[in-house]
């Protein structure tokens, strides 16, 4: 019994050490705009130098990771970029902002009286304060000389998948590629970025929180507007389809292979 207890204690120590090490790589920062602030974490490449240029990845978390601790947003997705092999193969600046508890990345009208939840995405509504701050942060960060302007990416899951579609519609000339996991958005607005941004869209066919038809709708709209998105529908996955998406062996190589396209306008 004592041996089992010691083993469990050792496992807990190792786990806590790994979590702490991961969090240490993502430095805590605060972005301010007037009286408004956005908490975020940022990880720089190994041997970061301002004399070099690096890609930037913006990651938008889901509703469950909202808060003010500047930590919870690392729950999903952060390990993918911390992985030693991935850090060595794809040196990049990784940004994880945190949305406050009472806000959303997207300005979606959300009805949770039944599931999957009912979502309506207004076409001309002003961005939420959280989205405004994220856009401001990205405009500030990508103005740095050490950022490769041709390799700026965004991705997110659930609420962050919705936010991914929305930020693409608001900053269609900033991003080179994007991935949206179990998200949804305004299909009409895809015309702004369909030809400009390469996309990989994921969803679980059994998702009982956000209807997979939302992603299908967005894929169809992107195709109708001249885009050529990748689309992966996991037949047996529910809302946590991000676990399967993050396990895709080609996700990062696909993402970092993309550069900004020549504008078709």
Write down the overall geometry.
globular
Uncertain ranges: 11-19
- Quaternary arrangement of the chains shown? single chain
What's the Cα radius of gyration? 19 Å
CATH class: Alpha Beta
- By DSSP (H or I, 4+ residues per run), the number of helices equals 8
Structural class: alpha/beta
| CATH superfamily membership | Alpha/Beta hydrolase fold, catalytic domain
Mean pLDDT: 93
Helix content bin: 25-40%
CATH fold name = Rossmann fold
CATH architecture verdict: 3-Layer(aba) Sandwich
Order of helices and strands: HEEEHHEEEHEHEEHEHH
Distance between the termini: 70 Å
Q: Kindly give the count of domains.
A: 1
Largest sheet: 8 strands, mixed
Strand order in the largest sheet: 1-2-4-3-7-8-9-10
């Amino acid at each position: 019994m004592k041996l089992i207890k010691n083993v469990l204690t050792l496992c807990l120590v190792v786990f806590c050490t790994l979590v702490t090490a991961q969090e240490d790589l993502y430095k805590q920062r605060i972005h301010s705009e007037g009286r408004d602030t956005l908490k975020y974490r940022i990880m720089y490449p190994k041997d970061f130098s301002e004399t070099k240029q690096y890609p930037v990845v913006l990651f938008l978390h889901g509703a469950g990771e909202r808060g003010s601790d500047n930590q919870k947003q690392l729950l999903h997705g952060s390990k993918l970029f911390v992985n030693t092999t991935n850090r060595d193969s794809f040196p990049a600046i990784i940004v994880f902002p945190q949305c406050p508890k009472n806000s959303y990345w997207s300005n979606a009208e959300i009805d949770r009286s039944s599931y999957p939840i009912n979502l309506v995405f207004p076409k001309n509504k002003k961005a939420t304060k959280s989205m405004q701050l994220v856009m401001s942060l990205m405009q500030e960060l990508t103005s740095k000389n050490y950022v490769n302007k041709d390799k700026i990416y965004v991705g997110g899951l659930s609420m962050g998948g919705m936010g991914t579609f929305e930020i693409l519609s608001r900053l269609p000339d900033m991003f080179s590629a994007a991935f949206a996991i179990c998200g949804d958005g305004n299909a009409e607005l895809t015309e702004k970025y369909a030809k400009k941004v390469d996309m990989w869209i994921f969803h679980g066919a059994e998702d009982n929180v956000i209807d997979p038809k939302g992603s299908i709708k967005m894929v169809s709209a992107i195709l109708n507007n001249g885009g050529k998105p990748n689309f992966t529908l996991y037949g047996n996955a529910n809302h946590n389809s991000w676990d399967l998406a993050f396990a895709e062996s080609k996700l990062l190589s696909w993402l970092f292979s993309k550069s900004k396209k020549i504008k078709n306008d």
